[in-house]
Amino acid sequence: MSAPTPAPGNTDTTGSGAGIRLGLAANLPQFVLLVAVNALVGGMLGQERITLPLLAETVFGLSAHTAALTYILAFGATKAVTNFFAGTWSDRYGRKPVLVAGWLIALPIPAMLAWGPSWGWIITANVLLGISQGLTWSTTIIMKIDLAGPARRGLAMGFNEAAGYLAVAATALATGYLAEQFGLRPAPFLLGAAYAALGLGLSTLIVRETREHARAEAAAHPTGGHHHAELTTRQIAWRTSIGDRSLSAASQAGMVNNLNDALAWGVFPLIFAARGLSVAEIGMLGALYPAIWGLGQMATGWWSDHVGRKHLITAGMLLQAAAIALVALGESFAVWALAQVLLGAGTALVYPTLLAVIGDVAHPAWRARAVGVYRLWRDGGFAVGALLAGIIADIWDLETAVWTVAALTAASGAVVAARMTETHPEKRR
User: Fold this and answer.
1) With pLDDT > 90 as the criterion, what percentage of the chain qualifies?
2) Measured CA distances, 87 to 56, 94, 127, 141, 263 (Å)
3) Please, which residues bridge with residue 99 across strands?
4) Would you say the C-alpha torsion 51, 52, 55, 57 has a positive or negative sign?
5) How big, in percent rounded to 5, are the helix, strand and coil portions of the chain?
C-alpha cells in the first residue's frame, strides 16, 4: 500500500513518521520559538552594521577601501562555506546540535569586537561570526521548512527572514545611538553579548529536533524518498548550482542580493559620512533598509504562496538595482532614506521567495543540503561584494562601485526572468 499524499496545512503522517504533523498550526510553539531564536541570530549581525565601517577608519586608520572591507570578506567567505556544511551536518547529526554549536562559537565575538587591540582581532571575530551565522541561520531555516510542510513554505520563510532582519535593523539603530552617546567601543557590542547568551540558552534548553519532520514528509512524498536519499552531495551541489534551471537561477540571484547587502553594509556608511551625516543619521539610514526588508518579508513570503515565485524575484532584483542607483545619485538624507526604503522593499520581494524556490524544487530527502548549497552561493555574495566594491573604490571611487553593483543587480533580474520556471506547486504551467 502506498504512502498517503499529504494534504495542505496540518498533516498526520504514517510509517516512520507516525504521530508527526506538518504545518504551522500544528507546530506553532516551536515555530514561534525558532522565529525568536533567529531574531537573536540577526541581532548578532546587526551589532556590526554601523560601527565597523566607522571603526576601520577612525580607530584603526584603514584608508584603503579594500583593506577596510576585509571584515566583510572574512565574514562572507566563512559563512558561505559553513552554510554548505550546515545542511550536510544537520542531515547527519540533527538540526539542534548544529544550532547549539553555532551559538557556542558566537560567545566570544562581542568581547573581541569591543576590546580587540588590532584589526586582526576584528577579522578573527568576523571569521567566527561567519561560522556562527552559517550554522545558526541555516539551521533555523531548515527547521522551519521541516515544520511548515509544503503548503505554507513561503510564509514560513517570510517570518524567519523578517525576524532576523528586523533584529538587524533594531540593533543597528540601537548601536548607532549607543555609539553616538558612548563612543564606538565597547557599549554597542554589549547587546551582542546578551544576544549570544540568550540564544544559546533557548537553543539548548527549549528548541526541539525537527529532522524527523523532514523524514516523514519524504516518506509521504509522491515520489518517495529512497531514490532521492541516494543522491550524493556532489550531485546535489551540481543540481542546485548549474543543472536545474530554477535552482541555479535562484543561486545566482541570491549571490547578487547579498553582494548588494555587502555594499549597503560596508560602503553606504562611508558615502553618508563623507557627505557630512552624523553617526546617528547614518544609524537611522542603516536601520531603515533592513527594517523595510524585515517587515516586508512577512507579506512577500505569504504573497509568493498565492501568486508564485518567479515574478516577485524578477521585480525585486530590478527594484534593488534602481534603489542602489538612487544612492549614487542622491545628495540628501531624504533621497537616501527613499533609496533605503526601495532597497528594503526589493530585497523583501526576493529573500524569502528564493528560499521558497529551493524548498519547492528540492526533494525533502536532500532539501537541507540544497539549502546549504544555495546559501553557499548567496552568502558568497558578501565576499564577492566586499572585494568588488573595495577594488573598484580604490581604483576609481565609491560612487563607481555603487553604479557597478546596480548594473550587476539589473542583469541578475534578467537572468531570473529568462532562466527560472515557476516553482510553486499550484502555480506551475
Assistant:
1) 52
2) 33, 10, 19, 10, 27
3) none
4) negative
5) 80, 0, 20
CB count, 10 Å around CB of 174? 18
Contacts of 335 (CB under 8 A, 6+ apart): 326, 329
DSSP 396: S
Distances from the Cα of 257 to the Cα of 70, 87, 106, 254, angstroms: 19, 21, 25, 5
Cell of 419: 532562466
Could you count the other beta carbons within 10 Å of the beta carbon of residue 112? 17
Boundaries of every domain in the chain: 21-419
Is 21-419 in CATH node 1.20.1250.20?
A: yes
| Contact call for residues 356 and 39 (beta carbons, < 8 A) | no
396-423 pLDDT, tens digit per residue, is 999 999 999 999 999 999 999 999 999 8
Range in 17-26, 134-143, 155-164, 298-307 with the lowest mean pLDDT? 17-26
Cell of 353: 521567495
Mean pLDDT of 70-92: 89
CA distance 135 to 102: 5
C-alpha 21/C-alpha 43 separation (Å) is 31
Helix (H) or strand (E) holding 71, with range, is: helix 70-93
Cis amide bond preceding 186, omega within 30 = yes
Are 150 and 8 spatial neighbours (Cβ–Cβ below 8 Å)? yes
Q: What totals of helices (H) and strands (E) does the chain contain, helices first? A: 19, 2
Would you say how long the chain is, in residues? 429
Q: How far is CA 399 from CA 65, 258, 274, 302, 304, in A?
A: 12, 18, 12, 36, 34
Containing 11, the helix (H) or strand (E) segment is: strand 11-12
Q: What is the residue whose three cell numbers read 534548553? A: 205
Phi-psi region of 23 (alpha: psi -120 to 50; beta: other; left: phi over 0): left
Contact (CB, 8 A) for 294 and 341:
no
Least Cα distance to 145 among 375, 420, 371 occurs for 371
